[in-house]
Amino acid sequence: MTAPLWTSQEVAAATGGRALAPFAARGVCIDSRAAAPGDLFVALSDRRDGHDFVAAALAAGAAGALVSRMPPGVAADAPLVLVEDTMRALTALGAAARARSQARVAAVTGSAGKTSVKEMLRAMLAPQGPTHAAEKSFNNHWGVPLTLARMPRETRFAVIEIGMNHPGEIGPLSRLARPHAAIVTTVAKAHLAAFDSEAGIARAKAEIFEGLEPGGAAILNRDNPHFALLARRARRRGARILRFGAAQRCHARLIGAEDGPGGCAVQARLMGRPALFRVGAPGRHMAMNALAALLAAQALGADPGRAALELAAWTPPEGRGMRWRVALDETGLDGAIHLIDESYNANPASMSASLAVLAAARPEDGIGRVPRGRRIAVLGDMLELGEEERALHAAIADDPAMQAIDRVHCVGPRMKALHEALPRARRGEWTEDSAAMAAMMRRLLDAGDVVMVKGSLGARMARVVEAVMKLGRPEPARADQEAL
Hints:
By secondary structure, the protein is of the alpha/beta class.
């Protein structure tokens, strides 16, 4: 039988707490609704007080709970560890998990692409050893310690995503994760409401080097205008610099990326040697993400050749470029709509990359009410852009990819600036919110169309994705079905 993830004694020792009764936990959770048998439930206090849900978590089979006071409805001899502050205790538990682990750790940040790189690394490393990576986008002050606290003892490779909204957030999380490889995918206009400039964003991203282990690698985008700033900050921490991009003298240099059915064929040079591989998602930005991931895999001691082979079967996470074929009847004889789901997040850089993917898509002609298949974008607000937000939304109209896009529908008060800037032939509908746009999908789409839905999470563009799914029978797109 495998050893438990945590015993009550280990939890108490790591957190400076007091165990009221013995237990052995196989997992860690912070949401009582997701508590699985054998979990340690951590009663955090944020919008709601987790102590109010300890009884429910224990009833669901949780092995024990980490609390700062006796919760209601729980017996005095319940399997609890009592601490002064549960958030600090979760952080201490994450630090203890990292301290006892022999894993090689990669940390990933960036204005765009960090979740895709994290998921690529998960897929690439898993066949080469026990691999642990953050769920979804658990990349903030509670997500990173939770990810570390969940790390199994036998982990060989770990991948930690680190995000931010304000300066000073990445550094403490990097020092907690203590990575051997730190990746900055790119620096671009995002979270500008909290920064005075894009260079300020770069300085905040450079905090990821603060936790680098001795001899660690900083993996940087050589094509980014902030490369020099990032490289200086990394060298101050003793990092060796590994460069990816299309520029000369990159350790992972992109020679070409050609989209086709089922993804992207990549031609590159990796550590001076020719490399040909496929990525299971189209787009030059995905090829760049793959190069960053390959450098990280090599820096962690994995075989990059084996790692590259795994990229062909990799698909993007939900809401971050996942592709669907929505058959409009049970048999598929009435044709299908092809959906690109980019509904999880948006900033100007990721918006431009996603529009390029849509522009390269191949709609199907002659199968719908409209004789020619169309490329259609449904775009929601990009949030946290500060005083430049209106200009940055309007500027999307001038993106080179727009020349290949037939119709653009806009959602939200900020996207009204784009709606007004679009030429009349390309201008579609504008709605105040995503619910109103979702209600229009049946009228606005037709068989053969390729539709890309994108916006910041707060714009709730997942409603539009759901509405497109409900037009027929959705299934993940296979290479022989994609109009991409």
